[in-house]
Design brief:
With about 190 residues, this protein is mainly α. The chain contains five helices and two strands. The chain has a two-stranded antiparallel ribbon with strand order 1-2. Strand 1 and strand 2 form a beta hairpin. The termini are far apart.
Length: about 190
């Protein structure tokens, strides 16, 4: 019996002139269920037109940029982003709690929580220095000391909050944003 045109491999030219061997309809419909040894990404597809050379399953797909590769990574990313944002508003206690309670499960969450707590503690140290300077200035003029301390605290908070928001966005996307050392003294270890 002669092969029908949909049972034979079709050679289709691509834009750059190379010829790619297309998969036949027969090959695509023969495998209705994925084999048991496939990974969880390819098991979601009912058939795979690109099997490995040894026929053991499909090639694993790369996850989309910023996509979680494991189900629990999504919650770790949310905890990391929450640690950064809470450090900007509530200080060092929320990221320290995340560091102590949740960081044992994930090294990346530990690194993010340590950096958020380090930034908040460093900011607190800067505030103490600004308070000492404003108190020294308040000896001569109370308004000069008050305005200097308030301006220094506001500028430090704006710098800290901008870096923490950048780090929170990076943590939400699954990457790590390193905050400069002048604002993040390494007090807690992230590793």
């Amino acid at each position: 019996m002669a092969e029908r045109y949909w049972d034979s491999p079709v050679k289709s030219p691509s834009r750059n002139g190379h010829v790619h061997l297309a998969v036949t309809v027969k090959q695509m419909t023969e495998r209705a269920d994925p084999p048991a040894n496939q990974d969880w990404v390819s098991a979601q597809r009912p058939w795979d037109p690109w099997p490995l050379a040894d026929g053991s399953g499909s090639q694993p797909r790369q996850p989309a940029w910023g996509a979680a590769t494991k189900p629990w990574e999504k919650t770790d990313r949310a905890w990391a982003a929450a640690g950064y944002l809470s450090a900007a508003v509530l200080g060092f206690l929320p990221p320290l709690a995340i560091y102590l309670l949740r960081a044992r499960h994930s090294p990346s969450l530990r690194r993010h929580a340590a950096q958020a707590a380090n930034v908040a503690i460093t900011f607190l140290l800067y505030l103490v220095c600004a308070a000492v300077i404003s108190a020294a200035l308040a000896i001569g003029s109370a308004s000069a000391g008050l305005w200097t301390g308030a301006a220094a605290a506001l500028l430090l908070w704006i710098a800290m909050a901008s870096y923490l928001v950048r780090a929170a966005l990076a943590a939400r996307n699954g990457t790590f944003y390193r905050i400069p050392d002048w604002l993040c003294a390494p007090l807690l270890r992230g590793r």
